[in-house]
Amino acid sequence: MNAAPDTVRFEARAAAVAAAEAAYRRGLARTRLKRRLLPALGIAALIGVWALLVYVLKVPTFVAPSPYLVATTLVAKFDVLMVNLLPTAIESISGFLLGNLAAIIIATVFVHSKSAEQAFFPVVVLINTIPVVAKAPILVLLLGNGMEPKIAIAALICFFPTLVNMVRGLESVNPQSLELMKVLSASNTEIFFKLRLLNAVPYLFSALKIAASTAVIGAIVGEWIGSTTGIGALIIQSTYNFDSAMLYATVIVGSVFSVLFFLAITLAERLAVRWQPAA
Amino acid sequence: MSAPAVDCRGISVRFMSERRTVTALEDVSFSVEPGGFTSLLGPSGCGKSTLLRVVADLIAPSEGHISVLGTSPAEARRGRSLGFVFQDAALLPWRTALQNVELPLEVGGRRALPAGAATPKELLALVGLSGWENSYPHELSGGMRQRVSIARALLGGPRLLLMDEPFGALDEFTRDRLNAELRRIWAETGTTILFVTHSVYEAVFLADQVLVLAANPGRVAALQPIELPRNRELAVRDTAEFVAIAARLRAQLGSTH
User: Lipid biosynthesis as a keyword (chain A) (predicted)?
Assistant: First the structure.
């Protein structure tokens, strides 16, 4: 007598749960699709407004090109753009490696010697307050007209955020973990490699992600001053030639490279940091 | 006949800062027999964690004399006779449960496990975590993380286990279960335990003596032996004897404010 209504109720509930699950999964798929579609839509809208403005306001080509003209320039001048991207890429990647390596080493020194930190941190802050555009001519005078000054600028621009983050990462270890190491009679070297360095890895990556895009900016700014090749030189040349389509194409190549650099670091972070950072 | 596991005589600890000097412990004397289970009970600010850190050689006393396992705290620490369990488990998040237990083998002179000592895997089994060896701390619950940290502290068979409110952040059910398991682990390993807590129930259930500390400045208010059967179930907390002891401790704590 009672069994039949129970079974019916159970089946009804199972069906309701299945329906709710299906609805939830549909919602999830929709959100995912939206997340992919919306950024593309945003960029498309931007290009649309740009094209519309250039067309409606009859903007002369030497002031601003139409998106179509930029696209054809990108295709037609692809080899020139790539030839100029190469030095910029070499400079920014070398600067990125050098600047971050120096920052990591100096952060290590600072953590081990409070006196060194107190003596040299103000110097670092002082150098960091000089704008990049002011550092560039100084370094060109010092290092000549080759790739060296550009690498130096890219390195300098990466250095500061990485130093600050790395020091914080090395110092902000859980006090109880530090006590644990002392109870275990661990040496300072062991505390550094087993605790501080690994603790700093997530901090390091947030600095590297900033450095990836600023290193490219540093190399380009360096190329503005007395350079014949590179994205920066191409920007200056096309500006002076009123070749707005080439200018826009160059800027796009530069930012696409920046974005790829950033994505590479993000991917490296995902591979390196598989744990959840301590809260 | 055998030396006490811990012997404190007139220990004082003062912390100095520019503005004032805080006396964390004032003239504390007590001793713990080898193989004993002692709870340090008191309100926050009574210096019970400080006292534990004096025993572990993490804080040097300003005055007084302390011997740990018949030697100085520093010597006991260097000899790996101490295990320490921290309040927040202090696991390294980039290491799996097993790798966390193995940490003591990799630092402080990379010592090998003494012959016959339990392996990291066996210790994880002892604390009930078989099958979780390769999980990272963020994949474990708070209670499981604390079990890992107990296994790590037991590695190498320490003669003295120091525990600083290890179950303070856990829910009541998990805490009850871990209390019962800690009694079992204590019986199985025979190690001396010093256990800091601010829970009267926990202090009485676990220990065979309770050192009651008073605050401002931290000092010994009472040393209460706990005469309960050695084989305890959680149900012992409902017996008249247990309730009477807890009431006496609470009165001792209350009279010190």
Answer: no
Please, what is the Cα angle at B107 between B102 and B112, to 5 degrees? 65
pLDDT per residue of chain A (279 residues) written in tens, 0 to 9 = 555 677 888 888 999 999 999 999 999 999 999 999 999 999 999 999 999 999 999 999 888 999 999 999 999 999 999 999 999 999 999 999 999 999 999 999 999 999 999 999 999 999 889 888 888 888 888 998 889 999 999 999 999 999 999 999 999 999 999 999 999 999 999 999 999 999 999 999 999 999 999 999 999 999 988 788 999 999 999 999 999 999 999 999 999 999 999 999 999 999 998 886 544
**Cβ-defined contact of B84 to A183 (cutoff 8 Å):** yes
Which of 2.130.10.10, 1.10.443.10, 3.40.640.10, 3.40.50.300 would CATH assign to domain B6-81+158-254? 3.40.50.300
What distance in Å separates the CA atoms of residue B164 and residue B221, rounded to the nearest whole number? Answer: 19
Residue located via tokens 């037609």: A76
Reading the block at residue A197, the tokens are 């360095």
A187/B107 CB distance under 8 A:
yes
| Full strand arrangement of the beta sheet holding B192-197 | B82-85, B160-164, B192-197, B37-41, B209-214, B219-225
* Superfamily of A67-272 according to CATH: MetI-like (1.10.3720.10)
Length of chain B, please? 257
- d(CA A75, CA A247) in angstroms, rounded, equals 14
What is the residue extent of each domain of chain B? 6-81+158-254, 90-150
ipTM: 0.91
In B, which residues are within 8 Å of A185 by CB distance? 77-78, 80, 107-109
**Chain A contacts of B82, Cβ < 8 Å?**
183
What is the secondary structure of B189-251 as a DSSP string? H--EEEEEES-HHHHHHH-SEEEEEETTTBEEEEEEE----SS--GGGGGSHHHHHHHHHHHH
